[in-house]
Amino acid sequence: MAALASLPLFFKPAGRRLVLAGASEGAGWKAELLAATGARLEIYAPDDVETPESMLRLTRLHPERVTLHRRSWRAEDLTGAMLAVGDFAGEDEARQFAQAARAAGAPVNCVDRPALCDFQFGSIVNRSPLVVGISTDGAAPVFGQAVRARIETLLPETFRRWAEAARRWRAEVQARRWPFRTRRRFWERFTAQAFAAPGQEPDERLRDALLADAEASDQAAAKGMVNLVGAGPGDPELLTLRAVRLLQSADVILYDDLIAPGTLDFARREARLIHVGKRGHKPSCTQDDINAQLVRLAGEGLQVVRLKGGDPMIFGRAGEEIAALEAAGVPCAVTPGVTAASGAAAGMATSLTHRNAARRLQFITAHARNGALPEDLDWRALADPAATTVVYMGLATLEALAARLLAAGLDPQTPAALVARATLPDETIVHAPVAELAEKVRASDIAGPALVIIGHAVALGPKTTR
Ligand code: SAH
């Protein structure tokens, strides 16, 4: 986890003793905030200053739990306090208050004195029971306010009613003893409805419809299944919404070497993550072994996600996995992803097709079973000057490939590029005519995965080489 400037916690002070010292307008506002939690609030406001109207109003509104003491605080007032908040003109008094609070075991906040604060008040978006707290750790109040305004617009006032309904319905959903995924389906549908029609009243009719929908899905999903999911070329922002939803409802996720860091952050926290990378050529991770694992896990009734780089249906051996699942009678579905060629084209800002220069687009792999250049490629098609060729797994055999293409008649000056780690922060692009690309790549210390793109379309993109 990245460093946290502060730890957001949500306290539950209802019925508990909170101590507030001070009589400024700011203290009055804190009084309102603290009283809103249902706490027993003890206010110590010395009577040599005028007590803010907001404090007087609170004591009238909640005489049973808001008490105003017209005197300065004393150390013994802090006994049993869950939290202590003070607003003082003088540094000395603030320091004494903080010391007394800590001695009494109460976290303390002295307004506008960060050194005397165990906790800070964030800005709040209040759709209680849905509450959002925002803190910039004092670094950027204006920025924080803008963030708050954004969140306000995302969460209509009516979300309060939806959050209340969720709280009312929770026990009932829990009582059904559904498996996790069915409960999840209920809450996913609930959430989708809240966002689609926030103004709708979440009433008992809606609840019953959602319960019935989840019940039906429970019966359908009693059996496990496998979702082959494309994770895109690297940048997690290129995951599809469906991929994210499947990652969040999976029981187990089998993922490849190509899955970039950050992608698995979207997985359900409880999901089992199994790395089935083949790069190490470990005997435990053959394709047969992966197929068998998929069948076994789905057979246990689990929701299995097979997460693959790019698009699962492009050089991903999805065909073998689908065949094995079909043979075992395991239901399976596919979620497409952004293939590496699309990611690379985006990074180069270059269209892979062009009405004059590239009427055909071909994807090939330059990596045969034995790791060498495949012999059975269609060299004539690859030498076609009106085509764009995208080469997957082509880094190791780039030199041999280029030699074969030239021998097949491709113009040595045909524009080409190598795109490494497309869509990732360290994406690298090397441009050179096809005859010179291998040498230029060798000189530039490239880390894979990388694609090669060959054809006149490459030259029609922006001229700058990154
Ligand atoms: N199913 C994947 C391809 C798997 S084959 C897809 O649709 O993209 C693995 C090859 O894909 C790598 O050797 C490399 O050529 C290419 N590749 C995958 N991710 C890449 C990336 N981020 N940048 C460049 N090439 C990538």
How would you describe what is shown here?
With 466 residues, the protein is α/β, with parallel strands linked by helices. The protein folds into four domains: 17-121, Rossmann fold (3-Layer(aba) Sandwich), CATH 3.40.50.720; 159-222; 225-335, Tetrapyrrole methylase, N-terminal domain (Cobalt-precorrin-4 Transmethylase, domain 1, 3-Layer(aba) Sandwich); 341-460, Methyltransferase, Cobalt-precorrin-4 Transmethylase, Domain 2 (2-Layer Sandwich). It contains 15 helices and 17 strands. The protein has helices spanning 25-35, 53-61, 91-103, 141-154, 159-175, 180-196, 204-220, 241-249, 287-299, 318-327, 340-348, 379-382, 398-407, 434-443, 456-459; strands at 17-21, 40-44, 66-69, 83-86, 108-110, 123-127, 130-134, 225-230, 252-255, 272-275, 303-308, 332-335, 360-365, 387-392, 415-420, 428-433, 450-454. The strands form four sheets. It has a five-stranded parallel beta sheet with strand order 3-2-1-4-5, sandwiched between helices. Helix 1 runs parallel beside helix 2 (53-61), helix 5 (159-175) runs antiparallel to helix 6 (180-196) and helix 9 packs across helix 10 (318-327). The structure holds S-adenosyl-L-homocysteine. S-adenosyl-L-homocysteine binds next to helix 11, strand 15 and strand 17. Residues 225-438 form the Tetrapyrrole methylase domain. It catalyses: precorrin-2 + NAD(+) = sirohydrochlorin + NADH + 2 H(+). Keywords: Cobalamin biosynthesis, Lyase, Methyltransferase, Multifunctional enzyme, NAD, Oxidoreductase, Porphyrin biosynthesis, S-adenosyl-L-methionine, Transferase.
